[in-house]
Amino acid sequence: MEARLIESVELAPEVRHFVYEAEGAERLDFLPGQFVCLSDLIQGKKITRAYSLASAPNGTGRFELCLNRVEQGHLSPRLFEMRPGDAMEMTPALGTFVLRDPPRDSIFIATGTGIAPFRSLLQGHLTASSPAFTLLFGVRYESHIYYRADFEEMARRFPHFRFWPTLSRPDAGWAGRSGHVQIHLEEAIGARRDLDVYLCGLKQMVDSTRGMLKEMGFDRKQIRYEKYD
User: Fold this and answer.
1) Residue 171: which CATH number?
2) Whole-angstrom Cα Rg for the chain
3) What does DSSP assign to residue 33?
4) 174 lies in which domain range?
5) In what order do the strands lie in the sheet with 106-111?
6) Sheet containing strand 15-23, strands side by side
7) Of the candidates 177, 164, 222, the residue with the CA atom closest to the CA atom of residue 197
8) Is the same domain home to 121 and 178?
9) Cβ-Cβ contacts under 8 Å for 31 (sequence gap 6 or more)
10) Would 72 be classed as within a structural domain?
11) Is residue 79 helix, strand or coil?
């Protein structure tokens, strides 16, 4: 199966939103929160990397990714060089970073491009009758709040969804939350211990937040995470 690029749009410097068509299958079946692997030959060696899907299943072969260009990365520079019509080998969707069954009220915590699976999860599960979700999204600058308009529109439509962006390097005009995302964890959770918590982002954030949750009395089964360096 191949992923053929339809379009890409810059979200911030060195970060893009990609739209692909999965060729070789009538549709791409997956669960919100899963990932696909893309592969290409780089200097004669096959390089494969996993990327979280940033869209929900839609009954077609189209899917979306949110990727940052890693200067010394093996595959991301190639992805950023692709033009509409270019293709790359891909796998079917994989992964267990999905909502527990049955789903319940949950806290989502993301940093950087770790926002991708949460966009997929919210598109796939947030409805008028869904559990309540809170999304804590940590980035450095206001210009890096990827998909801000999408999440703000979700918050307007659904009162049981809270979108809390937080900036670690805010400018003087920022009136929202600031600091590292995990410092807002207790505010988001309150006194409740019957929530599930999902984490995706840099290893340091994920490990720190998991430790905080365990100290707060959360069972490991209530915590799902994906992390990267």
Assistant:
1) 3.40.50.80
2) 18
3) T
4) 106-228
5) 177-178, 161-167, 133-139, 106-111, 196-202, 223-228
6) 45-52, 35-42, 87-90, 2-12, 15-23, 62-68
7) 222
8) yes
9) 57, 93, 98, 124
10) yes
11) helix
Say whether both 148 and 78 belong to one domain.
Answer: no
Which is it for strands 196-202 and 223-228: parallel, antiparallel or unpaired? parallel
Question: Closest Cα to residue 61, out of 85, 26, 100?
Answer: 26
Give the total number of structural domains in the chain: 2
In a shared domain, residues 113 and 82? no
182 in any annotated domain: yes
Tokens of residue 46, six digits:
């096959």
Q: Are residues 113 and 211 in the same domain?
A: yes
**pTM (two decimals):** 0.95
Sign of CA dihedral 113, 115, 121, 126: negative
Per-residue pLDDT tens digits of the chain, which is 229 residues long: 999 999 999 999 999 999 999 998 788 999 999 999 999 998 889 999 999 999 999 999 999 999 999 887 889 999 999 999 999 999 999 999 999 999 999 999 999 999 999 999 999 999 999 999 999 999 999 999 999 999 999 999 999 999 999 999 999 999 999 999 999 999 999 999 999 999 999 999 999 999 999 999 999 999 999 988 7
List, in order, residues 6 or more apart from 54 with CB less than 8 Å away.
Answer: 17, 64, 65, 66, 115, 116, 117, 119, 120, 147
Give domain status of residue 196, yes or no: yes
